[in-house]
């Protein structure tokens, strides 16, 4: 809220130039990208090496698994940002607890990493479930997704694409 007040004082019309949902998405995505960059840098440092991953009994799937984990963490941070902002705004401690608990769960699952199927599968399932939760938190619905995918024709012959989060434009 303090950032929103600061943005409002800097704008010309006295209103915040960015909505709370946009701020949640941008901050979550930014944190996810930074997390992914650091993860990729660590993986590249391992590949440049001394030694080669996969020799002496190590898994040859280290790099592909690391890529999928990095992707999942970028997405999870984006989803967690949306859910966390909404939970703070609506004062829902359960949502905050589930975001923090999910973060701890994903971090803990990475300790199983020589057994990639034991960590990667649950993390990807958690990513999918958290993405659906963030989508519904942001106001998305299955009905709007179907409208978006249908490319509905208007009388003038124009193709209209609806946003899955906002629905049809108001006339």
UniProtKB/TrEMBL annotation:
The keyword Transmembrane is annotated on this UniProt entry: yes
Gene Ontology annotations of biological process type: Notch signaling pathway; protein processing
One term under GO cellular component: gamma-secretase complex
Alphabetized Pfam families for the sequence: Aph-1
Domain of life of the organism encoding this protein: Eukaryota
Transmembrane segments: 23-41, 61-84, 96-116, 122-142
InterPro entries membership: Aph-1 (IPR009294)
Keywords: Membrane, Notch signaling pathway, Transmembrane, Transmembrane helix
Cellular location(s): Membrane
Main localization of the protein described in the UniProt heading: membrane
Recorded topology in the membrane: Multi-pass membrane protein
Metal-binding found in the keyword field: no
Family, per entry: Belongs to the APH-1 family.
Subunit annotation: Component of the gamma-secretase complex.
PANTHER family hit by this protein: GAMMA-SECRETASE SUBUNIT APH-1
Function: Potential subunit of the gamma-secretase complex, an endoprotease complex that catalyzes the intramembrane cleavage of integral proteins such as Notch receptors.
The protein's name in its UniProt record: Gamma-secretase subunit APH-1
Organism: Campylorhamphus procurvoides
């Amino acid at each position: 809220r303090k950032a929103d007040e600061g943005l409002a004082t800097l704008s010309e019309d006295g209103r915040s130039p960015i909505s709370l949902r946009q701020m949640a998405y941008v901050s979550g995505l930014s944190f996810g990208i930074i997390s992914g960059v650091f993860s990729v840098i660590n993986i590249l440092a391992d590949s440049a090496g001394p030694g080669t991953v996969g020799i002496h009994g190590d898994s040859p799937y280290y790099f592909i698994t690391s890529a999928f984990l990095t992707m999942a963490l970028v997405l999870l941070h984006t989803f967690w940002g949306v859910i966390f902002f909404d939970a703070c705004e609506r004062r829902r401690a359960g949502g905050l607890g589930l975001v923090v608990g999910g973060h701890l769960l994903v971090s803990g699952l990475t300790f199983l990493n020589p057994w990639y199927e034991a960590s990667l599968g649950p993390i990807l399932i958690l990513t999918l479930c958290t993405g659906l939760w963030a989508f519904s938190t942001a106001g998305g619905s299955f009905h709007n997704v179907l409208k978006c995918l249908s490319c509905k024709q208007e009388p003038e012959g124009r193709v209209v694409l609806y946003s899955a989060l906002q629905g049809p434009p108001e006339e």
